[in-house]
Amino acid sequence: MSKQLAKNILQSPYNFNDKWEDLLDSEEFIKVFLSDILEDYIVKQRWYGGKASKLKYIELSEYFKMKQGDEVYYGLILEINFVEAFYQHYFLPIAFVSDENFAKKDRILPISIKGQEGFIIDAINLEAFRRLMFEQILIGQNGNETKVQYHKSLLLNNVNYESSRFMGLEQSNTSIVFNEKYVLKFFRRIYVDKNPDYEMSRFLSEKKDFKNTPKFLGSINIVDSENSHITIALMQEMVPNQGDAWEYMLKELHTVFLNLEHKRIDVDSLPTTELFLRLGINDVPPQIIDWVGLNLFLKIQTLAKRTAEMHITLGSEFEDTAFTPTRFNGDYTVWLKNRLLYQFQNRLNTIENNLHKLDGLALELAKEFLDKKNKIRKRFVKFDWTKLKGERIRVHGDYHLGQILVKDDDFYILDFEGEPESTIRDRKVKQPPLKDVAGLFRSFHYAIYATIFNNSTEFLGSQETLFKAAELLYNYFTGVFLGTYVAEVQDANLNIGYHQERMFILEYCLLEKAVYELGYELNSRPRWALIPLKGISNIINH
Q1: Distances from the Cα of 423 to the Cα of 237, 418, 519, angstroms
Q2: What domains sit in the chain, N to C, each tagged with a CATH number?
Q3: pTM of the model
Q4: Do 505 and 390 meet the contact criterion of CB atoms below 8 Å apart?
Q5: What tens digit of pLDDT does each residue of 320-361 get?
Q6: Which residues lie across from 165 on neighbouring strands?
Q7: Are strands 87-97 and 71-82 parallel, antiparallel or unpaired?
Q8: Alpha-carbon distance 447 to 529, whole Å?
């Protein structure tokens, strides 16, 4: 459909004589709805993940009614096809409203149905729709006719609908807060399979009673025309909190760097520690405690304990094969190497195309990366599963400070969807637990350097001095974390391998993560490419 025709439709509503309950059976309506108008709407949404690609056309892959009595909404599974010859699926529930004053920003299409003028909007904007979804979960009702399955946890009893509101600024999903106690997360980009967040949350909370993640309370799944189960929403308890661990860490690190000046600390005279040496609090020299403060190291120990407990729980299943621990083998090795070598080649090309955007230390490290590309490639190829004695388990998969809530002196772990760039199948592959640890360590590294980059006018030391302090901090943070983490998992008999194996896997996963980050930084904020480049340099020179 031409842009001009789309504009004409927007000026005067399109007329249909079908009833709303039958509208999705109208080919004419589908044609109008899937036109440029829907494309223009979708590309502006925060949850739309295809912004870097050129949209070709949208198809309606599946639709189903979400209804009760006369109240009817449609759930749409949209297939968005790209010029680059791949596609993504998205969930969009729609409603028809006739109130002229309603949802002005969220209108998709002006329309007249049997003489009644109004608009098609994203149904999540309607309180009536949100209420219906909540109440259907409370009933735990499965609608055979609509193929919608509502599941309720046993923890959700004697509850009535009171209120609902949007949770706030989320990127890939839309979360609704009910009764100020429960959060229903609607997955926007969806996969023809159960979402890992649903599987992991239900397993940890319902089957294993893991305390440091929000309790699983319910879900909405659909069974599509090919009998596949697709998760479209997940309900959990709302954990009162003081924000996420990323914001907490930035605030703490701001003080740590200001202390260099306030306490007149000479960075060159501070005692150093070897990278990844396991440390207890008593192993941290008094000068470092005086500079950083004891509290931050205690918090890192708590975070290490919670991370270890998560992995111990995920490795404690012996019946459900989706969660039973497994050994390294040849299939896993082939999968891993193919994935990493493809990603590595992609990042090499990106660096070569973006060298002109870099200067100073970032340019120096980028050149080192190119000079040592064969050495890095060999590190990836050297993965020899026959020498590894540890176990693989289901892991968080996208573990960083932004996925962790701070509540008083404790931490709660969220969002088990997995790595955004990975396929749903890849996200469910069992991995060494140290993959999550590596993700968190990269997050520590980022938080330290982000503090320097975001407050450069406040810190008086030279960049060289600040970067030296950054690496020193990173070594102590990771050392204290490992000291607690390794002791906890070994006490619980979770097999993460012998010392040399642990170091190999940790460095392997850190290298993988930093190479992954490099592509993002070079494309979106080249100045920050220094952070993953420094991480890569640390590993290849360790």
Answers
A1: 28, 9, 18
A2: 3-122 (no CATH), 128-237 (3.30.200)
A3: 0.91
A4: yes
A5: 999 999 999 999 999 999 988 988 998 899 889 889 999 889
A6: 177
A7: antiparallel
A8: 14
